[in-house]
Write a structure and sequence with these properties.
- The termini are far apart.
- By secondary structure, this protein is an alpha/beta fold.
- The radius of gyration is 16 Å and the shape is globular.
- Helices cover 27% and strands 21% of the residues.
- Strands 1-8-2-3-7-4-6-5-9-10 form a 10-stranded mixed sheet, with helices on both faces.
């Protein structure tokens, strides 16, 4: 059974944040809130956690995981940024955007795109996400909680627990997060290309 943690959406309780982080540090998989929708998360070092997320969502090895960061300094250690990307991404974060960029050696090879050596990164504008990532001290390896055969992500923590109780190690419930995924911007060619329109304003990258 998944541990169920009801966390205040604006002022997350440190004790509950610590419990969620303890699950992650043990290699577990959690469902947690972001500023776009709920996500599945594990640590970058958890091979089992990444495999479980792939299995849950029926993903192949070509899927771009997203590394969810606490701040821009953490993001900058994971991907290569030229001056234009640096300025544009810094101005848009935190926010509901995922950026695909060339990975640095800090990113394990198995987590980057096999051919492009790229990875997705983002900094959500959500107090609970920020608290968990800061307490963990490293990015969370994440994927949107959109289950196979579903048109929309699940929006409530209790619903996630009800449906995935035996598949997850913890559910962090901070209320409704909505159903709109992030706007995805691919920067691997050296210029921004909006590859998915979502919660973030895509016009700032056109």
């Amino acid at each position: 059974m998944a541990r169920y943690l009801e966390v205040h959406p604006h002022d997350p309780q440190p004790r509950l944040v610590a419990q969620a982080v303890a699950v992650l540090r043990e290699g577990g998989v959690i469902a947690y809130p972001t500023d776009s929708c709920y996500a599945l998360g594990t640590t970058m070092g958890s091979h089992d956690g990444a495999d479980r997320i792939r299995h849950l969502r029926h993903l192949d090895d070509k899927h771009h995981f997203t590394l969810v960061c606490a701040d821009f300094a953490q993001l900058g250690q994971l991907v290569h940024l030229d001056n234009a990307a640096f300025r544009a991404i810094k101005a848009a974060t935190p926010g509901p955007y995922t950026f695909i960029l060339q990975a640095t050696p800090e990113v394990p090879r198995r987590l980057a795109h096999a051919k492009k050596r790229s990875v997705g990164v983002r900094i959500p504008d959500h107090p609970v996400t920020a608290a968990i990532v800061r307490e963990l001290g490293e990015p969370i390896l994440s994927s949107s909680l959109l289950m196979p055969g579903h048109d929309w992500p699940m929006t409530e923590g209790w619903q996630i627990r009800e449906e995935l109780d035996h598949e997850l190690d913890a559910v962090v419930d901070a209320g409704d997060c909505g159903t709109t995924p992030t706007t995805v911007v691919d920067w691997t060619s050296g210029a921004p290309e909006v590859v998915r329109e979502g919660a973030g304003d895509p016009d700032r990258f056109r």
